[in-house]
Amino acid sequence: MAAYKSVRRKRMITLVVYTLMLLSAWTIYQLGVFAVFYDNIPILGLIIRNSIKYIIWTLPVLILLRHVYFSNPIEYLKLGGDVANGLVWGIAIGLIIVIYHAIRFFFIGDGSLRFDIDIYTWVHKIILIGFTEEVVFRGFILQKINEELEFIFANGIASILYVLIHIPRWYIDGLLQSEKRPYLLASAGFVLVFGLVQGYVLKKTKSLWACMVIHSINNLVTIIIGI
Q1: Where are the domains of the chain?
Q2: 17-24, long-range: CB within 8 Å, 24+ apart, which pairs?
Q3: What's the pLDDT score for residue 24?
Q4: Cα separation, 61 vs 73, whole angstroms
Q5: Regions of the chain with pLDDT less than 50
Q6: Does residue 138 contact residue 208 with C-beta atoms inside 8 Å?
Q7: Cβ atoms 211, 134 nearer than 8 A
Q8: pTM of the complete model beyond 0.70
Q9: Predicted local confidence at residue 218, as pLDDT
Q10: pLDDT at 41
Q11: How far is Cα 61 from Cα 57, in angstroms, rounded to an integer?
């Protein structure tokens, strides 16, 4: 029993260290390196920046699952199983999110329509978003915390961490300035709720594909309506 507790403690320490390293590495990259790989070389920048995000976010998860937690990454991350069911759930809930954003746009007046989405945005922020952010926060961090805590607490912690990973981008966009504080609070609130919903979607569907589809649909709609 003592040996088992020691192994669990070491694995939790590994998870904490990984999470801190992810937050630190992503902050440094966003604040210090991000613009270099896109402003002057769009296509090459697209490849380099997506590769960097994969290396910082996804690759360490795959390595940890295989060599530290001794799990099959596909099975653990819930990328196998009934993929079709996950896609159906993802599309259904994604449509609800579309309706929510449409109400905001047409009745509250948030945002402005834009359809000129460049290739970088399509690939980085819409198509591949699930293979980085969902793999890390729902597939890995949420499930690992849930092994030690009840789901409601695990989901809350994972969702708060998901908010924190957005802070460097909000800083770059100037949302931390006092005059933009209301928009910052609204953005943080939405990201928190979005993370919580995604956690319950994973719990219900047992498919990370559902979370990936929802994330892609959400990003596509928010980009189109400019919020």
Answers
A1: 2-224
A2: 18/60, 18/61, 18/64, 19/141, 19/161, 21/60, 22/56, 22/57, 22/60, 22/136, 22/165, 23/161, 23/164, 23/165
A3: 95
A4: 8
A5: none
A6: yes
A7: yes
A8: yes
A9: 95
A10: 59
A11: 7
